[in-house]
Amino acid sequence: MINTTMSFMATPVVSNDTTAKRTIPTISKEMAQAIKVAHSGINEAVFRLERLETEREQWETTELAASRKRMYSLLTECYEYYLTMKTDKASVVREQYKKGLETFITVRQYTFLPTSHDMNKIVKSVFGVDRRRVSAYSLALRAALTAGDIDAKGNTTPIPASDLANWLEEKGGVEEVRLGSKNKGMTPKERAEVAKTALQTSVLATLKIDSKVCPFDTNDVDKMMVLVATYRPTGELEVSAVVRHDTAVRSALAAYYSGNKEEVSKLAEANSATEVSASAISIALDSQQ
Questions:
Q1: Which residues on adjacent β-strands are paired with residue 238?
Q2: pLDDT at 186
Q3: Residue 213 in 3-state DSSP?
């Protein structure tokens, strides 16, 4: 019995056993052609995307850059017109530019509010009646009027017209300058803080999330989060995700501030006043103990 067992354990595996080899199945010519055609279609799709990618890069580096450069050139001339009309040393020149603008507006039959800034009038005269574009360009140029050096009297000066294009580029373009001007130069973090203060007492609805679907813990208590929701024709909001990331929350609050600036500012002031009052009451109570 022992010898039989030992003999069995010592039996080597035959390395050239043909039964252990896997045979590669052959495919028909028709199948091979079908595979080739399928891959050919995929390759053509990939090549098309690569071509479009190359064309986009060329557009960004040539056509788009040239278009942006030309836009800055036109904005600079609008800016120069305004500076000449307002700051030229010769009063006769200032008057000529003022009358020229008024005449142009009359001929084009443009209308403005009594409070419209003269920069808006110049930009609209050059770029037409697209209200969004006129607003964006004029806000950016008006921001440049107070973004220069501080003079001897402590007043801000305009960016020199010769530096306007570079200044716009350094600031990230017209849109970034416009947003900074619209929000009084506040950073996104500052706007988020104001919105956070304002929303402390604002509750649109109360939802109870199934903890099995979206688990929470004690570390989430009283923290602001972003809900990704879809509005349905039934009037219901379908919540698809909960984002706890601080950066996402801060961005959402900053965006909310930008779209509801006046309302947010009033609520923030009211809530800040309430906090101060509550703090004062606490101090008074502590002092009596």
A1: 230
A2: 58
A3: coil
